[in-house]
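Researcher: Please predict.
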Amino acid sequence: MTFRVTHHTSYRYDDEVSSSYGQMHVLPRDVPGGAQVCRGTEVVIDPVPEDYRERRDFFGNRTAFFAILSPYRTLSVTATTEVDVHRNGHGNSLVADPPWEQVREQTRAGMDPDTVDARQYVLDSPLASTSAVLEEYARPSFPPGRPALDAIQELATRIHDDFTYEPGATTVRTTVDEVFAGRKGVCQDFAHLAIGCLRSMGLAARYVSGYLETRPPPGRPRLVGADVSHAWASLFMPPAGWVDVDPTNDRLVDDHYVTTAWGRDYGDVPPLKGVIFTEATEHELEVMVDVERLETG
């Protein structure tokens, strides 16, 4: 499928901002193997920045930096990308689904570049750390010999059933332990929870940010998180690679999802962050996302 993804962010301050510096992770990336290919991106920033540049970060994500050195009270950032997506939503059907213990051991021992790179995602990160509590929660989904894909799907189902989707219940700084204790949150929290559980089982799991199709075709359900940035978890399964699962919607990620970036947790890939110099004490934030399916010949 081909989509046009528009991500618009605006800030309004109650006093003048003398200058600011921002960094964005709102530019969808190419995904290895042709699962996602970006056709082109347009970024419009108002006021026009004195400096704008793009680069690839440590994880290979498209990252943009901008600096605005003139005073303003309102800032808007709009990124529009056309992207082709080709996923089947069923993992890699060409590779047998190995037991989860085999996946864990291959991740530990493999020396090919992809596996060596994946091992960093077994380690704790600030918002998705391992714990005995998370291991105890995950363990029923990982009995001996169970295929890894079955295990991660059941784990996603349990998170979906056991935790309440409630915007405002958490913040971007809420840790996975706090989410587990509160039993509520949003997509990034449930992604962190799945990642913490998988890492607690010795598996490599990373955080993926992106978008969902805003208006599904007739007969298809509208998914939670379609009007904002979305997030999900990804499990490394050598030799097939990464398999993405969305615990918020209790489903494997398919071609209705657009990937923006991945990292250890949300802290590596926030959509927009920066530093401002101002006396303002209040501001209004507005975020609008639209993922439009395009007709292709």
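Model: The chain has a mean pLDDT of 92.
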